């Protein structure tokens, strides 16, 4: 081969390679044998005494382990049987915060503040007793409740129980059956009156609190929202008195015994008086709350209560017309059967035969709608009335007035 082959894998230096030098004597190199590792020292065979000691050692260790394990299992079993828990639970508060320490604008703070103003009303008549609720409206002892709570009781049969369990006699100051309101009086001058709210500013969706004695469970608080406004309802007490409500509807749980009790806003102001419920049962003893409760607006109730206190009776707001209860027109509304010649309707230009379809912004479909909504307003209120005459729409401005009774 020619060229530089030093880099070849097969290249070797022939001059120093004994296999390439014929004159070089042949030598066989043998590797010295590797000596075997030295034998490990062999333990002498145990004697009888040694074997006995080993057995006793193993037995002692086994007994110690068994005793320790048994003791541990026994402790666990005893702990479980004694109700001892080894789970890390949340740390208990050293002392729960007192109710008085809650923020005054919290629901608990509001309830604590208004509860002394709420009473349970016991009205005895004959062999029976009506039980309802009420609330203090003046520091000198006036209390407002429903007329149907008072029922047939006289002043000698009425007692009020306060939140501190004090029970005192009460007398009837006056009542307005068709509006379902009554004012009572106790001889005390140290009472805490409620704060009255403006029911005209209430909106659907506002949160509310109902407090009273449903089913004789005194001091019961329920929570809900305003479900509807100006819900017109007609009720009958079974004794010939027809009651009319343009009510605040709520879903707060209200049952028998809540009647006459306050409906508060979340600031602790009374915006209504819980008066009626709707139930799936027509039997009075079996009916219960299904999320439909109705309260008399406080502005209406406050005016009537003030007149009862000042004059012994309250005025009813009227429009000055009789209604045709059998009318069923294709466009709805209520037909005027006749009109008082000196009444509000006549002075506004309304005539018999006119069909009222709207009072203010409220549609009118039945006589109950018109009567309940008119009574909701104070005498002297000027309100727009939409009506039809001979099929043609028209409007009038009517100044409502008090009845002559």
TrEMBL record:
One Pfam family from the record: Trypsin_2
Domain PDZ residues, every copy: 308-389
Membrane-crossing residue ranges in chain numbering: 54-76
Bias type Pro residues, positions: 33-44
Region called Disordered, residue ranges: 1-48
Keywords of this entry: Hydrolase, Membrane, Protease, Transmembrane, Transmembrane helix
InterPro entries with a match to the protein in the record: Chloro_Bact_Ser_Proteases, PDZ, PDZ_sf, Peptidase_S1_PA, Peptidase_S1C
SMART domains xrefs: PDZ
Gene3D superfamilies: 2.30.42.10, 2.40.10.120
Protein name (database record): PDZ domain-containing protein
